């Protein structure tokens, strides 16, 4: 793989993994546009790891506190005060709800992986689902009441966001956009919906990378510098995307991303049908 193309795709992966415009759709579109026919497993895994490093780096303190709280929560089970401590410590609650909300995407990945992979063969299906992403972003904001945060979050809302993440395994449905939209529909306030969406991405991205880890050594040896530079591009652009999205959610709406999804999805869909 050419180093310049690797960096471009790394930037696209980092930006679109966290901006609500679907990384899967944009990778399919960009690879088709750049004429990349051969799938490089090592490069794919490293791009995922790059976005993983970005989200862990941005929410490092929260994630460390969650891990520590989870360990303490396991000890609480043996002490007989699990439920009481879960209500008192927000990080214990966040850790367990993150695990619970990850179950749906794990089940979809295990049982429907081959079916989902077949949908990545062309650009038509990702383009169609990108239009749906735009609809989710646009209408969920207008439904949102915005009164649920970590203090009053329940398993019901956590699982609903997890269901959104499971749906987003489809090409063209943005993972961040769909989970945030499902959070809005569940009544989460906008800032917490975005934060919980990013935290939910950690086990999801890690799981996807682990599943594809076989054979990474050979691919990395053959394309060392393109893989490394693509990884670094994904890390940097991912950090930038997280910062930008959180700022936009605080100050403005996500309508710009809805319009973007509609425009790009329509152009790609019409072009694919005509050509």
Short description:
The chain is mainly α. The chain has 14 helices and no strands. The longest helix is centred in the last third of the chain and has 28 residues, at 224-251.
Explained architecture:
With 275 residues, the chain is mainly alpha-helical. The chain is 81% helix and 0% strand. It is built from 14 helices and no strands. The protein has helices spanning 3-18, 23-34, 41-58, 60-79, 82-88, 90-111, 113-118, 124-143, 155-167, 175-185, 190-211, 216-222, 224-251, 255-274. The two termini are 27 Å apart. The model has no long low-confidence stretch (mean pLDDT 89).
How are the elements arranged and paired?
Blueprint: H1 3-18, H2 23-34, H3 41-58, H4 60-79, H5 82-88, H6 90-111, H7 113-118, H8 124-143, H9 155-167, H10 175-185, H11 190-211, H12 216-222, H13 224-251, H14 255-274
Largest sheet: none
Cα shape = globular
Helix content: over 70%
How far apart the termini lie comes to 27 Å
- In what range is the share of β-strand residues? under 5%
């Amino acid at each position: 793989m050419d180093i310049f193309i690797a960096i471009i795709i790394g930037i696209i992966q980092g930006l679109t993994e966290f901006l609500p415009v679907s990384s899967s759709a944009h990778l399919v579109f960009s690879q088709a546009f750049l004429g990349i026919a051969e799938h490089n497993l090592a490069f794919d895994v490293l791009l995922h790891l790059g976005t993983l490093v970005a989200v862990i780096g941005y929410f490092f303190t929260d994630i460390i506190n969650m891990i520590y709280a989870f360990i303490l929560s396991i000890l609480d089970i043996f002490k007989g005060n699990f439920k009481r401590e879960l209500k008192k410590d927000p990080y214990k609650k966040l850790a367990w709800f993150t695990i619970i909300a990850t179950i749906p995407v794990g089940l979809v990945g295990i049982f429907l992986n081959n079916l989902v992979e077949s949908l990545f063969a062309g650009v038509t299906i990702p383009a169609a689902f990108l239009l749906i992403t735009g609809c989710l972003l646009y209408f969920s904001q207008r439904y949102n009441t915005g009164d649920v945060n970590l203090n009053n979050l329940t398993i019901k809302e956590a699982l609903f966001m997890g269901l959104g993440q499971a749906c987003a395994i489809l090409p063209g449905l943005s993972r961040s956009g769909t989970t945030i939209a499902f959070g809005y529909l569940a009544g989460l306030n906008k800032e917490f919906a975005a934060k919980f969406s990013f935290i939910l991405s950690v086990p999801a991205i890690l799981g996807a990378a682990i599943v594809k880890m076989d054979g990474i050594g050979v691919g990395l040896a053959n394309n060392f510098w393109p893989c490394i530079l693509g990884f670094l591009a994904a890390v940097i652009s991912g950090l930038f995307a997280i910062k930008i999205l959180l700022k936009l959610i605080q100050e403005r709406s996500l309508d710009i991303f809805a319009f973007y999804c509609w425009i790009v999805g329509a152009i790609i869909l019409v072009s694919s049908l005509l050509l």
